[in-house]
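Colleagues,

For the teaching module next term, I've prepared a clean inverse folding example: a structure given as tokens, and then the sequence designed for it. I'd like students to try predicting residues themselves before seeing the answer, so please don't circulate the second half yet.
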């Protein structure tokens, strides 16, 4: 059971607003884009969004897309991540759609590169290209 699914661990209003906005978007959004989108809901300061994103990230409900300095709702929000899998992201450079997919475990990937003495501290796999919809417009 993930932290998000733990009984008694409800989301705050701000956390719920941020999560729902990311889920509705289907795309990665920066903290400032979230703030602009949620001003009508009472969010006024960047710190409100950053705090919500921090907790949502800890609960594995959102992921940070490092190459975009943005966030996306986890596609596994209704179930736990696979215990032995790492997450990867396919990012459409045309429309901004982000698709989450599973990779072999971080331990397995780290062991593979570790054969040459490389020590992994953290891992982010982000693939940039074009989604099927955008590629089909040519």
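(Answer key — instructors only)
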């Amino acid at each position: 059971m993930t932290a998000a699914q733990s009984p008694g661990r409800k989301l705050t209003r701000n956390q719920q607003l941020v999560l729902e906005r990311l889920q509705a978007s289907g795309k990665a959004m920066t903290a400032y884009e979230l703030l602009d989108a949620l001003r009508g809901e009472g969010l006024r300061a960047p710190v409100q969004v950053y705090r919500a994103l921090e907790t949502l990230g800890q609960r594995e409900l959102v992921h940070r897309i490092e190459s975009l300095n943005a966030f996306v709702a986890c596609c596994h929000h209704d179930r736990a991540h696979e215990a032995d899998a790492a997450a990867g992201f396919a990012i459409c450079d045309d429309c901004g759609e982000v698709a989450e997919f599973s990779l072999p475990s971080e331990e397995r990937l780290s062991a593979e590169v570790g054969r040459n003495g490389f020590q992994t501290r953290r891992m982010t796999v982000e693939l940039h290209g074009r989604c099927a919809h955008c590629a089909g417009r040519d």
